[in-house]
From TrEMBL:
<protein>
    <submittedName>
        <fullName>Nitrous oxide reductase accessory protein NosL</fullName>
    </submittedName>
</protein>
<dbReference type="InterPro" id="IPR008719">
    <property type="entry name" value="N2O_reductase_NosL"/>
</dbReference>
<dbReference type="Pfam" id="PF05573">
    <property type="entry name" value="NosL"/>
</dbReference>
<dbReference type="InterPro" id="IPR006311">
    <property type="entry name" value="TAT_signal"/>
</dbReference>
């Protein structure tokens, strides 16, 4: 497995470089013009205080699988300050797509990073589930993670995407659990 890298991790496409440069220029201009958009970078928070998923309403810390959170620039999920909360990456993506369609601006998206935690696999009712981790330090930037998809491992809502910040760890997990590895930008293609 050593030496296997996803094509876009080695060399970003010209389109991606141009889009990033454009986004940086727009952000700089917005700061100069005083757009009112919060320019502070988002930092993940702990989801240990009984937060419930903004899609299904389940208490996040009480269920298996990866958790997530999305911070928005001007809009507030359900009228509250802070991020939207999720008990699965699948639900996070569904929520994000609906907000993107409404024109909401994302400041940061974070998911459980299984490269940074000691996770457990639990067999229950003929399925294997991965443990949840909701401390602030357990989260990583979702756009920089590699996701194991179509594996035999389950999360809170059944089949889920298991994120790793380390590509080799994602590949090993995928090999052991009959999955494949995808990058963030390819999850919507599923």
């Amino acid at each position: 497995m050593t030496g296997r890298r996803p094509p876009t991790a080695v060399s970003p496409s010209r389109r991606r470089v141009l889009a990033s440069a454009g986004a940086l220029a727009s952000a700089g201009l917005a700061g100069c013009l005083g757009s009112g958009v919060d320019a502070e970078p988002a930092e993940p928070i702990a989801l240990t205080d009984g937060q419930t998923c903004d899609v299904c309403g389940m208490t996040i810390a009480d269920h298996f699988g990866p958790a997530g959170q999305i911070f928005y620039a001007d809009d507030k999920p359900d009228g509250r300050d802070g991020p939207a909360w999720f008990d699965s990456v699948v639900e996070l993506l569904s929520y994000a797509a609906k907000r993107d369609a409404r024109g909401w601006t994302t400041r940061g998206t974070f998911v459980t990073d299984y490269s940074s935690v000691d996770y457990d696999l639990v067999d229950r009712s003929r399925s294997t589930y991965i443990s949840t981790h909701v401390a602030a330090a357990a989260f990583a930037d979702a756009t920089n993670c590699f996701y194991v998809v179509d594996s035999d491992i389950r999360g809170a809502m059944g089949e889920d995407y298991v994120p790793f910040s380390e590509y080799e760890e994602a590949m090993t997990f995928a090999d052991e659990h009959d999955g494949t590895v995808r990058q963030w930008e390819h999850l919507a293609d599923r």
